[in-house]
Specification:
alpha+beta, 3 helices, 5 strands, 35% helix
Length: 112
C-alpha cells in the first residue's frame, strides 16, 4: 500500500468539530487497487492531543457530517490480525444465530 498526501481540509474539519487544534505532522490516505475509499492516517506531534481526540471520538456519532468517521488508536500487526479474526468470528456468529445480539466488549465477543 502506498500513501497519497491528504493535507486537505477533511482532517482539519473533523478535528475542528471536536474543538481540537492539533499540530498534524503527517497525513496520508491509504490507497487500494480496487478503488474503495480507504482510511486516512494522521500523525500528530503530541501524544496528549492524540489521547484527547480519542476520548472525544464518540462525539462524532452525533454529528450529521461525520457520523461515519471513526478514530482509532495505533495498533501493532498482531493487534490488527486479532481484531480482524474477532470481527470475522462475530460476523459468522451473527449469520448463524440471527436471533442473538452479539457485541465486542474489551476484545471479547459477548451475547447481550
Amino acid at each position: 500500500m502506498r500513501g497519497v498526501s491528504c493535507f486537505s481540509k477533511i482532517p482539519f474539519e473533523v478535528m475542528d468539530s471536536l474543538n481540537e487544534k492539533p499540530v498534524i505532522s503527517k497525513c496520508s490516505r491509504v490507497v487500494a487497487a480496487d478503488g474503495k475509499v480507504r482510511p486516512v492516517v494522521v500523525s500528530l506531534n503530541s501524544r496528549e492531543t492524540l489521547i484527547s481526540l480519542l476520548r472525544k471520538a464518540r462525539e462524532l456519532k452525533t454529528t450529521t457530517a461525520y457520523s461515519k468517521v471513526f478514530l482509532e488508536p495505533d495498533r501493532t500487526l498482531e493487534q490488527r490480525v486479532e481484531k480482524k479474526r474477532t470481527l470475522k468470528t462475530l460476523s459468522e456468529l451473527r449469520r448463524s444465530h440471527p436471533e442473538g445480539r452479539y457485541l465486542i466488549m474489551g476484545g471479547v465477543i459477548q451475547c447481550v
